[in-house]
């Protein structure tokens, strides 16, 4: 009984965490590198070069996708308040595990 309550609460917290995830779309950032006759195109965003259809997980707790049309999509944590804490990312982990890990400014 106690166990099932715990599992339920845990699932609920996970749902909340994902519900608050933020998506932002960037402009087309196409970058082409040619070596002799062979050219390859990437999305260039921040310091990253990403192949179309692929994504990378940054050290800033985000995941950046390079779409097939070379526009970019970035997933990041939303704001999450749990038990009076504004939860901040744990930057030692990758997205989405980094989201909402550290309690800041707890008031009571
Ligand atoms: C690129 O593709 C995405 C997903 O297919 C679409 O949502 C977006 O509007 C496109 N961007 C441009 C600038 O065409």
TrEMBL record:
<dbReference type="GO" id="GO:0005576">
    <property type="term" value="C:extracellular region"/>
</dbReference>
<protein>
    <recommendedName>
        <fullName>Single domain-containing protein</fullName>
    </recommendedName>
</protein>
<feature type="domain" description="Single">
    <location>
        <begin position="43"/>
        <end position="103"/>
    </location>
</feature>
<keyword id="KW-0732">Signal</keyword>
<keyword id="KW-0964">Secreted</keyword>
<feature type="signal peptide">
    <location>
        <begin position="1"/>
        <end position="21"/>
    </location>
</feature>
<dbReference type="InterPro" id="IPR029277">
    <property type="entry name" value="SVWC_dom"/>
</dbReference>
<dbReference type="Pfam" id="PF15430">
    <property type="entry name" value="SVWC"/>
</dbReference>
């Amino acid at each position: 009984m106690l166990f099932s309550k715990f599992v339920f609460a845990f699932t609920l917290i996970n749902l909340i965490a994902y519900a608050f995830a933020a998506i932002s779309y960037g402009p087309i950032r196409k970058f082409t590198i040619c070596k002799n006759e062979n050219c390859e195109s990437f999305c260039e965003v921040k310091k990253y070069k990403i192949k179309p259809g692929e994504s990378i997980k940054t050290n800033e707790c985000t995941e950046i996708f390079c779409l097939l049309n070379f526009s970019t999509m970035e997933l990041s944590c939303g704001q999450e308040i749990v038990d009076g804490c504004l939860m901040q990312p744990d930057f030692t982990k990758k997205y989405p595990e980094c989201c909402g890990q550290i309690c800041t400014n707890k008031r009571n």
